[in-house]
TrEMBL record:
<feature type="domain" description="Integrase DNA-binding">
    <location>
        <begin position="3"/>
        <end position="85"/>
    </location>
</feature>
<keyword id="KW-0229">DNA integration</keyword>
<dbReference type="GO" id="GO:0015074">
    <property type="term" value="P:DNA integration"/>
</dbReference>
<protein>
    <submittedName>
        <fullName>Prophage integrase IntS</fullName>
    </submittedName>
</protein>
<dbReference type="InterPro" id="IPR050808">
    <property type="entry name" value="Phage_Integrase"/>
</dbReference>
<dbReference type="Pfam" id="PF13356">
    <property type="entry name" value="Arm-DNA-bind_3"/>
</dbReference>
<comment type="similarity">
    <text>Belongs to the 'phage' integrase family.</text>
</comment>
<dbReference type="InterPro" id="IPR038488">
    <property type="entry name" value="Integrase_DNA-bd_sf"/>
</dbReference>
<dbReference type="InterPro" id="IPR025166">
    <property type="entry name" value="Integrase_DNA_bind_dom"/>
</dbReference>
Amino acid sequence: MPLTDIAVRKATPADKQYRLGDAAGMYLEVQPSGAKYWRLRYRFEGKQKTLALGVYPAVSLRRARESRDAARTLLVKGVDPGASRVAVKANREHLRQTRSRALPESGIVSSRRICRSHMPRATYAV
């Protein structure tokens, strides 16, 4: 039976962690500390894997289900959702580093009328 928002809200911590199942491999993991984590269990190339979908209440039940559906769509296309997330994060980091190096060269920092002695600090601040 699918979870409801009320059931998720009322999930209380126990002595050991436990899981409340939703549907299609998604569940809420409740820790003894009271933390609640959305997880998705899936199988890719014969291996059982778990994908973290977020922390409740920052990620609502609706948002967790949307993330689950997106991951399932990737699985249907033959893409591992966990590996895809890692690749996207690495690409984002690469772009961030590339942009931060390009700013001083493009003149964006120098257009702010910054003294040369402050240039290294200004580069990091941008």
